[in-house]
Design a protein that fits this description.
With about 300 residues, this protein is of the alpha/beta class. The chain has one domain: 3-Layer(aba) Sandwich (Rossmann fold), CATH 3.40.50. The protein has ten helices and nine strands. Strands 3-2-1-4-7-9-8 form a seven-stranded mixed sheet, sandwiched between helices. It has a two-stranded antiparallel ribbon with strand order 5-6. Strand 2, helix 3 and strand 3 form a beta-alpha-beta unit. The protein starts with a helix and ends with a helix. It comes from Nitrosospira multiformis. InterPro entries: LmbE-like_dom_sf. This is GlcNAc-PI de-N-acetylase.
Length: about 300
């Protein structure tokens, strides 16, 4: 890599042009090394209170600030109960507002790369996090008359997702994206990226994960313990970013024919008397996704008209 290219990459990192958007406090632990190295701007959709009404936002803010990240205005304003209520009642105002705020933030801060939770069918808020960011990035990239130039070339805001459940290692080896300075760099031509952690970084990450999970207790502690037991500690020595898929290949299409996990678990908990309602993909989540997708097409139409205007 030549010096000019390396200097530009270092400038992008130090300029805080990376944005991380996560649904719940605690998700930052999956990207502990990336956050420490890039020090991104961070948005958190909920306070992490879940069904037990015990917020864990303050613990996450302590971690992020200790790593040098910057906390964005969209930070822990909502509870899971509020989001679920909006889903069940078909009320879209909150999702419209979140999308608009994320879009404005990306533009105002000249964000180059956005990383978010990915769609896995485990939790509807996780899945909507990806769609909200996907929409905000697409709208931003469709806005005309905004110069986005780096190294003399136009660029688009890139969107990457992170896996939260299962084995943190991919079944297919991704492309390593690392600068010669040993900082992770997301290059526009890359579909997948690896962030390598050294022994010290991995030790800090594992210690933080254990301490965080122990304080949170409940399902989060169980998930962390299960992950260590199933995949081993070394599996967390690499962190992976996956380029968001192209239109027509969205991961939520998997749920058109099969139920996501959150729907199956919801049915079980209703049967046990723990929940009153089941959040269903077709009835409650897909309409929100479709509404957000219309914002992309509407933005593209407006952009086209503006380009044709004299």
């Amino acid at each position: 890599m030549n010096d000019a290219r390396r200097n530009n990459l270092s400038g992008n990192l130090s300029g805080r042009r990376n944005l991380l958007v996560i649904a719940h406090p605690g998700h930052e632990l999956r990207l502990y090394g990336w956050i420490a190295q890039t020090k991104p701007l961070v948005c958190i959709l909920t306070d992490g209170s879940g069904s037990d009404d015990k917020p864990r936002l303050s613990a996450t803010l302590n971690i992020l600030q200790g790593l040098g990240a910057e906390i964005a205005p969209v930070c822990g304003e909502l509870t899971d109960r509020q989001i679920y209520r909006k889903m069940l009642h078909g009320e879209y105002d909150m999702f419209d507002d979140l999308c608009e705020r994320l879009t404005a933030l990306i533009a105002a801060r000249d964000i180059r790369t956005v990383v978010s939770d990915g769609i896995e069918g485990y939790n509807p808020t996780h899945d909507l996090c990806e769609v909200l960011v996907r929409t905000a990035v697409a709208i931003t990239n469709n806005v005309p008359n905004i110069a986005r130039v780096a190294d003399g070339k136009e660029y688009l805001v890139r969107h990457y997702t992170i896996p939260l459940m299962g084995d943190p290692r991919p079944t297919v080896q991704p492309t390593a994206c690392r600068a010669e300075s040993a900082n992770p760099v997301i290059q526009q031509e890359s579909e997948q990226c690896i962030i390598e952690l050294n022994e010290r970084e991995l030790a800090h990450k594992l210690e933080t994960m254990r301490e965080y999970a122990s304080r949170a207790g409940g399902i989060l502690q169980q998930e962390v313990e299960d992950a260590f037991r199933s995949y081993g500690e070394e599996a967390f020595g690499r962190e992976y970013l996956y380029a968001a898929v192209l239109p027509g290949k969205e991961p939520e299409r998997n749920f058109l024919q099969q139920k996501p996990f959150y729907e199956i678990r919801g049915e079980q908990r209703v049967a046990d008397g723990r929940y009153r309602d089941v959040i269903r993909f077709h009835e409650h989540v897909l309409p929100i996704m479709n509404r957000l997708n219309t914002k992309i097409s509407a933005g593209a139409d407006r952009a086209g008209k503006n380009r044709k205007a004299p």
